[in-house]
Amino acid sequence: MRIVLIVIAVVIILAMAFTYILPMRAMAESNPPETPPPPDYGTDYDYDESTIAPWLEEPEEEEENLPPMLRILNANIRLDVGQQLQIQYEMENFPDGTILEWASRNPDVAGVDPYGVVVAYSPGRAEVYVSADGTISSVLVTVNELKAGKITIIVGDDVAQLGPRAYEITVGDVIRLTAKIEPEGAKVDKITWKLGNENVASITPNSQTCEFIPEAVGETQVTVSADGLVDAVSFRIVESGIPIDTLWVYIRYAVIVVIIIVVAAVVLTWLAQKRKKEKARKKAAAAKRRKEEAERRAREEAEELEMQRDKMEQRPVRPEERATQKINGSAVGASVSAPKDVAKEPDRPVTLDDLD
Questions:
Q1: Are 183 and 250 in contact (CB under 8 A)?
Q2: Strand runs (DSSP E) across 105-228, as ranges?
Q3: Cα–Cα distance measured from residue 197 to residue 222, given in angstroms and rounded to the nearest whole number
Q4: What is the DSSP letter of 212?
Q5: How confident is residue 241, by pLDDT bands cut at 50, 70 and 90?
Q6: Residue 137 in contact with residue 112, Cβ under 8 Å?
Q7: pLDDT at residue 55 tops 80
Q8: DSSP character at residue 185
Q9: How far is residue 209's CA from residue 180's CA, in Å, rounded to a whole number?
Q10: What percent helix, strand, coil does the chain show, rounded to 5?
């Protein structure tokens, strides 16, 4: 009976489930829930990116490994001799601390320092390049030719000079003239030489040099010109021999030399006389010292003898000495014998009567 009741209850429950649950499920499948629209952030884009729906976020792009790039920014460089310029460049994708190396393929024309400063030395072309880790970039540097600013005729030092631009030369001598262009390294199109008086001399021009040949006595002028620049020197041509002006120069030099020799001789003679007098003075002083020393010794010996004589006169005569004593009379020039009675009466004083 109990089992029957349990089976009836289970059947009722299943019937109720099929009656309510299945219709609700079918309604839910026919009317799915609406998806809420994304928030409206307006047109100023002033919003928090963290509020964007995850499904709308763009995936992050992976960083690309770009190759290094080194490039000189200057186009072809043109400089005058003596000028310098800092080369501009850019480099990308190099490790920090990368060292650049600068060099020039023609350093006589243009050189470059380790910081990329190029310096122009002489006219011509040079390629300057920079390298780093195998990457190279270069630029062409053109150095302009210098413009001549001055031209000057240079005459040899062995030619007698009469003035700033005047010289004297003898017939038959040949000198070489040179045209000096300034600044150094400047170039000119053509150098022209010209002789003023062709009756007294001739010239043989050869670009920057010229031979001047004097042929007769007289005066003339040589002129050189190039690119509008002009210079000239004048010459006075004389007969062979020593020119008068040169002779006067030699005479002045000879007079100066003679004066120097005379002064030197006088000074040497005076020094020799002074030395001779000094030697004579020293010799006389030495002789005087020797004489004074001899006189001093003589005085000392005389004083010594006088003292001995005084001592002998003051000392009493012994009896045994009276018999043999002799009195030397140097004052009267004779020697006197001892008194006769001295031996008999030794204690009696000697008198004049006792003398022979």
A1: no
A2: 110-112, 117-120, 124-132, 135-144, 150-155, 160-163, 166-170, 175-182, 192-195, 201-206, 209-214, 218-226
A3: 9
A4: E
A5: low
A6: no
A7: no
A8: T
A9: 9
A10: 35, 30, 35
| Distance from C-alpha of 336 to C-alpha of 316, rounded to nearest angstrom | 19
Residue 145 gets which letter from DSSP?
P
Cβ contacts of 216 within 8 Å, gap of 6 or more: 171, 199, 200, 201, 237
Dihedral angle computed from the Cα positions of residues 188, 177, 238 and 245, in that order, rounded to the nearest 10 degrees: 110
SS3 of residue 177 by DSSP: strand
In Å, what is the CA distance from 237 to each residue of 197, 224, 267, 336? 11, 20, 45, 117
**Is the torsion defined by CA of 103, 104, 109, 115 positive or negative?**
negative
pLDDT in tens, 82-101: 889 999 999 888 888 888 89
Q: At which residue do the structure tokens 């007698």 appear?
A: 160
Which residues, 6+ apart, have CB-to-CB distance to 135 below 8 Å? 68, 69, 70
Higher confidence at residue 294 or residue 62? 294
- Residue 216 CA: distances (Å) to CA of 168, 219, 239: 13, 9, 8
Give the model confidence (pLDDT) of 96-108 as tens digits.
Answer: 888 889 999 999 9
Q: pTM above 0.85?
A: no
- Tell me the sheet residues that pair with 212: 175, 203
The answer to whether 127 and 141 are in contact (CB under 8 A) is: yes
Say how far apart CA 123 and CA 147 lie, in whole Å: 11
The answer to whether the beta carbons of residues 247 and 213 sit under 8 Å apart is no
User: For tokens 């012994």, what's the residue?
Assistant: 318
Mind giving me the DSSP string for 297-333? Answer: HHHHHHHHHHHHHHHHHHSPPPHHHHTT--EEETTTT
pLDDT at residue 47, rounded to an integer = 47
Cα torsion through 69, 73, 78, 83, rounded to 10: -90
